[in-house]
Amino acid sequence: MPMKKHLYPKDWEALARQVKDAANWQCQQCGKPCRRPKQSWDEFEAYLLHDVMAPWFDQAIEELPTGGFKSYPTRFTLTVAHANGNPADCSVENLKALCAPCHLRHDVAQHVQSRKSGKYEKRQKQGQLLLF
After folding, report:
1. Per-residue pLDDT of the chain (132 residues; tens, 9 = 90+)
2. Is 98 helix (H, G, I), strand (E, B) or coil?
3. Which residues of 7-29 are buried (b: 16+ CB within 10 A; e: fewer)?
4. Is 81 exposed, middle or buried (0-12, 13-18, 19+ CB in 10 A)?
5. Looking at CB atoms within 10 Å, which of 8, 31, 34, 130 has the fewest?
């Protein structure tokens, strides 16, 4: 579901950055380390190879059966979620730094509802209304 920027405060980028900095660029749900701004993927992989972060390295790359490796940078993107689902409520207690997979799990009910309502609206526009 794309971000509806008009629902967020004008200083959202700065607020989100503060939340991420406060979380030390780690997911507050699973503890996964995430890439910092302007950090290259190569620099981040080198960081993951350190003893403390090594358990996360396997999620960052995968060896392909045909040879070589595939990288998964989006798994290590830190986002900011609204605990109550309301983007207008930007109180510190309502904001949580989550990696992309955890954020998707957090918002799954919203995604399902949005998809259902979108299908209903599409059918309505096509003239397929409910009879009862």
Report:
1. 566 778 788 899 999 999 999 999 999 999 999 999 999 989 998 888 887 788 888 888 887 778 777 888 888 999 999 999 888 888 989 999 999 999 999 888 776 666 666 566 666 666 666 655
2. strand
3. ebeeeeeebbeebbeebebbbbb
4. buried
5. 130
Distance CA 54, CA 17 (A): 25
**Cα angle 122-125-130, degrees, rounded to a multiple of 5:** 85
Distance, CA of 38 to CA of 25 (rounded, Å):
13
Indicate the pTM of the whole model.
Answer: 0.74
Tokens representing 43 are 């620099």
Closest C-alpha to 96, from 40, 31, 38, 35: 31
95-99 and 78-82 beta bridge pairing: antiparallel
**The pLDDT value given to residue 77:** 93
For 28, residues 6+ apart whose C-beta sits below 8 A from its C-beta are 96, 97, 98
